[in-house]
Amino acid sequence: MSNLKPDSVIACLDCPDHVQAVLDASMWASTRLQAPIGLLHAVPSLQQKAAINYSGCLNIDDESALLDNFTSHEHQGNSELKAQGRLLLHQAAAYCEQHLHKRKVYSLHRHETLSESIDYVDEMSQLIVIGHHVTCRSTLGQLIRPSLCPILVTHTTFAPPKSALFAFDNRATSHKMLNWLCKTPLVRALTIHIVMVGKENSENCDALREAYARLKQAGINCKKSLLDCRDVSAALNYYQSEHDIDLLMSGAFGQSRLRELLRGSDTEKLLGSTKTSYLLFPKT
């Protein structure tokens, strides 16, 4: 029987370099959303084992004793990987407890790929948190594209954001994210910069003005800006850097596949270039 709890924040512990940041981001989101945290570990394949070393990924007091306890009686191979996963989940729960996190924390130890594990959790979850450098063969884009749940991508450190950039492009996914932002408590305390990259014409100005008004009516402190630039990712990265914004937000893969083929995906470019946490809203 599944122990997945509805409306959880799912912390994907698949990348050793990002475990602590993923947990810090998950605790922040869990507090804002008043949601439990599901600690998700997908057991990697034996072929990936050599590239993965979780020792030292968290600073907790009993790491050495736990490692000896879990691995001393295990055989090499899959048993060792499972033991390593149990250790990691135990460490992650202890880390949350040491940081006085008050929401429920539970474990999801999946014996399948990370993409299959995300597919398992995303319909029932509020948010998935994942590290920027995943250890599986799938790219971040391949993991994010089919998701039904908003995904927060972190780098190696995470600090609670004070401001966010909402990349608004007037497409359907962007409007769905706008509706979500007006309701979710996740970013309600932040200053949101709603930024549109495009020609300064009446259609874009009207769309941006209406989106800005929606956020204001929802009680969110926000600013708006229209940037006339051909390179969307470069314009957004520059604006974010100039205004020292902690969090980037956009719809995920809102463009048509033909446009992505011809000009490249703005989502993929932003995933590769942004240096801050990146919140993506699903297309479907």
Whole-number mean pLDDT: 84
Ends: how far apart? Answer: 28 Å
Give the SSE order as H and E letters. Answer: EHEHHEHEHEEHEHEHEHHE
Q: Order of strands across the biggest sheet?
A: 3-2-1-4-5-10-9-6-7-8
Major sheet: 10 strands, mixed
Number of strands: 10
Helix-strand makeup class? alpha/beta
Unreliably modeled segments: 46-51, 69-76, 256-264
Gross geometry = elongated
- Helix segment tally: 10
Using the CA coordinates, give the radius of gyration. Answer: 20 Å
Strand percentage lies at: 15-25%
Fraction of residues in helices? 25-40%
Oligomer description? single chain
Short summary:
The chain has helices spanning 19-33, 63-71, 78-98, 114-121, 140-144, 172-183, 202-217, 232-242, 257-263, 266-273; strands spanning 8-12, 37-42, 105-110, 125-131, 151-154, 163-167, 191-197, 222-227, 247-251, 277-281. It is of the alpha/beta class and 284 residues long.
